[in-house]
């Protein structure tokens, strides 16, 4: 028999990640400079690693409460208050997850009935559409526009809303565009969200990497706070991708529901990582600042370099990606990336990996050293001159 006939109808329609496909190819080649993966290049700060080592030494290697260690949940609440003026109760409103990734998955598995619509912004993080569809939902795509600095506009939201809309998924600062929404930007759409009563799943994993002004969380609008599921994590802010640690803050009824999915699927986030997470949030502000300053310098360097060689690239205000247009080259984003890899051995990600509206762009991560960025820019320049 064909084992594939055993699978459900959705899984077969979900493509493998367009990022992975490309990087498997790049990793089989010699001498490639990769500006592809969305991962900070810093070591996890030593004092955070030390706490994990200490936890192992002390034998703190057991399951934690499903929702996470109380001390970590308290620390998350202090952090959200200190940084974004958000008030949550540690014992009812916080759930510690296996990265932001698990948080996205369990949010939709808890919210959706079959055929519920979810407004998904595009270009957007590769996991969003698959997570919605695997939870039985129907993604309704809203195309963010370069001329709007990849912000969500009120008219776009209005048009996408229908009686079947259950939720909207947002990600500011955004992957892959680096777009942000200011308080004024959110003020335009909040009344519509309040009126419609839909859930807002907001992935704010890049909140700490906001370069102009302070990050504004949509959860800070009191009139819709009970509708908001705030997702974040430790991967980007503290350079802790491999620790698999994230969290959700939301109304207690939503947290209780998501905790059911979490407890039966996951049990708890890795306990040793949770001890490291307490240290990160309590004493990591200086590390965050240092990394952010470094990313900002690299952002300025790469944007100036790309613009100088004619790859039109507005200054992104958040995250660690630039998303230049490659339309004038006449190549599709996949052609551009394939040829750049083949001819100059530089790996970047085709924009269409982030949805159809990413076509005509490429995503370049600048979470790499200035030396690597400099060499990559020289190679990209040569590629453009010769093509
Ligand atoms: N959301 C966004 C927008 C991301 O870019 C990523 C990682 N690339 C994640 C969530 C997942 O992060 P993690 O599971 O490591 O917390």
UniProtKB/TrEMBL annotation:
Class in the EC hierarchy, top level: transferase
Known cofactor(s): pyridoxal 5'-phosphate
CDD domains xref list: AAT_like (cd00609)
Entry keyword annotation includes Ribonucleoprotein: no
One family name in Pfam for this protein: Aminotran_1_2
Keyword flag Zinc: no
Superkingdom to which the source organism belongs: Bacteria
Ranges where the Aminotransferase class I/classII large domain occurs: 31-380
Enzyme Commission designation: 2.6.1.-
Gene Ontology biological process terms in this record: amino acid metabolic process
A GO MF term: pyridoxal phosphate binding
InterPro entries registered for this protein in UniProt: Aminotransferase_I/II_large, AspAT/PAT-like, NHTrfase_class1_PyrdxlP-BS, PyrdxlP-dep_Trfase, PyrdxlP-dep_Trfase_major, PyrdxlP-dep_Trfase_small
Keywords: Aminotransferase, Pyridoxal phosphate, Transferase
PANTHER family noted in UniProt: ASPARTATE AMINOTRANSFERASE, ASPARTATE AMINOTRANSFERASE-RELATED
Family indicated by similarity: Belongs to the class-I pyridoxal-phosphate-dependent aminotransferase family.
UniProt name for this protein: Aminotransferase
Organism: Holdemania massiliensis
């Amino acid at each position: 028999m064909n084992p594939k006939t055993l699978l459900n109808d959705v899984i077969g329609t979900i493509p493998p990640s367009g990022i992975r496909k490309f990087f498997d190819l790049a990793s089989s080649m010699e001498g490639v400079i990769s500006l592809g993966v969305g991962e900070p290049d810093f070591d996890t700060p030593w004092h955070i690693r030390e706490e994990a080592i200490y936890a192992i030494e002390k034998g703190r290697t057991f399951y934690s409460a499903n929702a996470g260690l109380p001390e970590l949940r308290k620390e998350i609440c202090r952090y959200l208050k200190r940084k974004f003026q958000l008030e949550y109760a540690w014992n009812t409103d916080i759930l510690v997850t296996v990265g932001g990734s698990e948080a996205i998955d369990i949010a939709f598995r808890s919210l959706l009935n079959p055929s519920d619509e979810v407004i998904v912004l595009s270009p957007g993080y590769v996991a969003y559409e698959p997570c919605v569809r695997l939870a039985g939902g129907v993604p309704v795509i809203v195309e963010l526009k370069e001329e709007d600095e990849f912000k969500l506009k009120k008219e776009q939201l209005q048009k996408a809303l229908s009686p079947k809309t259950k939720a909207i998924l947002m990600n500011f600062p955004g992957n892959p565009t680096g777009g942000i929404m200011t308080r004024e930007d959110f003020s335009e759409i909040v009344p519509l969200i309040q009126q419609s009563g839909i859930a807002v799943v907001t992935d704010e994993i890049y909140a700490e990497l906001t370069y102009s002004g302070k990050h504004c969380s949509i959860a800070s609008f009191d009139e819709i706070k009970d509708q908001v599921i705030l997702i974040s994590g430790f991967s980007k802010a503290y350079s802790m991708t491999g620790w698999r640690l994230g969290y959700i803050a939301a109304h207690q009824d939503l947290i209780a529901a998501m905790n059911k999915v979490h407890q039966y699927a996951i049990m708890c986030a890795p306990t040793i990582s949770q001890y490291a997470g307490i240290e990160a949030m309590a004493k990591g502000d200086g590390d965050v600042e240092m990394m952010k300053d470094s990313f900002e310098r690299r952002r300025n360097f790469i944007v100036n370099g790309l613009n100088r060689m004619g790859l039109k690239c507005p200054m992104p205000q958040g995250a660690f990606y630039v998303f230049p247009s490659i339309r004038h080259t006449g190549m599709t984003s996949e052609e551009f990336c394939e040829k750049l890899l083949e001819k100059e051995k530089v790996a970047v990600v085709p924009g269409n990996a982030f949805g159809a509206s990413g076509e005509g762009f490429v995503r370049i991560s600048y979470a790499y050293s200035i030396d690597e960025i400099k060499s990559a820019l020289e190679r990209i320049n040569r590629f453009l001159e010769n093509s």
